[in-house]
Q: What sequence folds into this?
């Protein structure tokens, strides 16, 4: 059965962290999530959801323990029809395959890659309609994806446009809005890096919805996070206690 999330669109996001227990407590308190640990067989991959648990839960993101020496990160995976073919096409377009396509249980096939400029992302082939986001664009759920690049946004996004069939719409400030051709879903943006972003490697910023960006950012700080940037015109950038960067946008 076809997954309802359009092809080429973000279908999942997760964080890799050297301190899974502490990070989960941070996010669960901040966003009101519950969580399910899939156990040792799946490397203690943990699914996070909105709701009180059980049948009322709606999946929003995942978390997985990582090596102590590796930095904590958030990453995004995009919906593809055939993960093996998509990974091969990405490689021909200049990407590097980091994690070769692998079937994960009965739900999906996943591959991890770095785009031609070095940003990590995933390709995700859902095997049924039950996988992927079950809540989106609301408080506590993923709501936007932003890419900052030290150069012309149109150049770096051309790779994704060819691979994932996106439309790139230029805004007056020369940033881009990103939209799937299937379904016309605007899900993110790309802008030329500025200020502290110039010191960072290219990367996708996973942004969560908030009723009030300012209040949620303040709560994140009270819980041990760091507010790196809080602006009206752009996603607020927060670092979890582990250092993983994520964004906040008004729902």
A:
């Amino acid at each position: 059965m076809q997954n309802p999330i359009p092809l080429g669109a973000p279908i999942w996001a997760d964080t890799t962290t050297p301190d899974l227990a502490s990070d989960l407590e941070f996010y669960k308190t901040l966003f009101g999530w519950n969580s399910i640990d899939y156990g040792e067989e799946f490397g203690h991959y943990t699914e996070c959801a909105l709701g009180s648990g059980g049948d009322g839960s709606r999946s929003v993101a995942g978390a997985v323990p990582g090596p102590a020496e590796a930095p904590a990160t958030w990453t995004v995976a995009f919906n593809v029809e055939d993960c093996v073919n998509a990974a091969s096409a990405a490689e021909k377009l200049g990407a590097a395959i980091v994690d070769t396509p692998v079937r994960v249980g009965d739900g999906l096939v996943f591959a991890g890659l770095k785009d031609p400029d070095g940003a990590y992302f995933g390709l995700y082939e859902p095997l049924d309609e039950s996988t992927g986001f079950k809540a989106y664009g609301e408080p506590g759920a993923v709501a936007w994806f932003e890419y900052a690049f030290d150069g012309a946004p149109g150049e770096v996004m051309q790779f994704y446009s060819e691979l994932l069939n996106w439309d790139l719409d230029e805004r007056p400030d020369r940033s881009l809005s990103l939209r799937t051709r299937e379904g016309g879903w605007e899900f993110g943006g790309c802008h030329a890096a500025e200020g502290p972003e110039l010191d960072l490697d290219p990367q996708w910023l996973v942004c969560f919805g908030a009723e009030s960006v300012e209040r949620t950012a303040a709560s994140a700080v009270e819980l041990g996070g760091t507010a790196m940037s809080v602006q009206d015109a752009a996603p607020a950038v927060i670092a979890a206690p582990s250092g993983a960067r994520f964004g906040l946008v008004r729902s």
In short: The mean pLDDT is 93. The domain at 10-126 is CATH 3.10.180.10 (2,3-Dihydroxybiphenyl 1,2-Dioxygenase; domain 1).
